[in-house]
Fold each of these.
Amino acid sequence: RRAEERAAAAAPVLDATGRHVLVAANVGSRPEAEAAVANGADGVGLLRTELLFLDRAELPTEDEQTAQLVDLLSVVGDRPVVVRTLDVGADKLLPALHLDPIKNGPLGQRGLRFGLAHLDILRTQIRAILRAAAGRKHLSVLAPMVTFAWEARTFRRLIADVSSELEDEGVAYGRPHEIGVMVEVPAAALAADEICAEVDFLSVGSNDLTQYVMAAERTNEAVASLYQPDHTALWRLYELLVASARAAGRRVAVCGEIAGDPAAAVRLVELGIDELSMAPASIPAVKAALRAALGTG
Ligand code: PEP
Ligand code: MG
């Protein structure tokens, strides 16, 4: 019976027009990848690499990062995977980096901002990701905390650069299936057309986007009641974002917590969101809600 439930959860979700709505998992470790597969994930919509860096006094080497990724990806089989580059700063102050809570705080140098200021760390990670992509058809790469189109352009260039470097060295690697950026900053959502020109897809980080739209820190208990992912302001922003992405012919995913809420998931898909990525345990309920709402079983 449990096997039946899992088989049902693993089936793809189609909307009335036959569009495949991808219901994927957020994972940061091998056990989470196993839970994703067990819960019927269509893929991994967000692989959070910073968890591979936690609890360490030193940064992992390129070889260590490659091995960790290969091990985690082996669990996922040939499902599509989106690997996010290091998202440090704000709520993710990795011990090995000795970050400053103000300089690297929520409005500071975090995510891709940190990566572009520490190119050695970012390049090493991209080398590891592309090496782990060898022989994979559907591994995409995603940058966190992007504000400007030029940041997305620089990220794409960096990936092209690292690819030719690996090529010249004769090291086995894979080119990313797609290159995307996260929409977590209100400016990026409002000027999504400019960013779409530089990337293949967008992935909305609703956790951070909520924090920045509501001006309420996601981990600050004192303003927890102001942190409202379901606020009208956010829905208006999603609507605008989908319209911009549609006009540019780009796919939009949502990978924040809101994607794992069945009612919100239905609303996001009805708005035109193409992919949802969530905690593995939320997948069966979200798939069931989507099937019921979309009238596709
Ligand atoms: C988000 O901000 O919504 C997101 C998915 O990224 P993280 O939670 O890792 O910051
Ligand atoms: Mg985020």
Amino acid sequence: MPKILIVEDEPDIAFGLQEDLTRHGYDTFVAVDGDAGVRHGREGAWDVILLDLMLPGRDGFEVCRELRRSRVKTPIIMLTARTQEAEKVLGLELGADDYVTKPFSAAELRARIKAVIRRSAEDSAGVYRFGDCEVDFERGEVRRAGSVVDTTAQEFRLLADRTVYENVALACQISGIWDRAALRERVNPLLDQMGIRGKEKLFPGDLSAGEKQRVALARAMARHPRILIADEPTGNLDPAAAGQIFALLREISSSGTLVAVATHAEEWIRRHPGRVIRLERGILRSDQMEGSAA
Ligand code: CA
């Protein structure tokens, strides 16, 4: 039975909430002022805290701030009589998960409670959300607007006992192309595009690091991805080879595949103008167009 802490000083509202939630299968407890809210909020294993804004002693904002400062991660829904947007936003920035404006309907509040409980269960299971996208690390799935996006993870490393041609052809075979002529038709243009035509009979061990990277790109493009995400694609390359790989990625990008590169290589970011999203320890620092075409 989910446990809910109700921090509310108005007896009528507290009683009404308690009655309705108990009837719908929740275990509830009422704290009647801010100090009691902080104390019980810290101590109990609550699934949700309903937190009134106007409270005697510490108000709801202070209670929310204090709980988050004490590393209480329980979802908090603010109950507010004030409708000013700024205050709602402030409430959310303090670490509240949602809010309802009084007077609210019991059904609406229950829907919000269900939603925050579901979200917090999923968050702890490793689901990240942005916009209408969800990345589910538990299931290894990316979903957009609820439908699963087909993704393929692929190492840059090539199969050492297969030739360049076979490495690229393998990706086509996995997507169902087995006919030899059809394979040639698909693989050769990729080798051309990546500038490794003539090397198809060589084995990865015969190639330079830059050439291996080109083969890996050809293999990645064999399945016509709509998005290509390359993680440090130039990490082990000398500057000249790195420049060629960035030029290739640029070409891929202009041919209609969205290319996202994760890199520390500032120099190449400057040389290849585009949208640059800067992260620092997982926190978004900036998101803007950078670099000059010169
Ligand atoms: Ca109140």
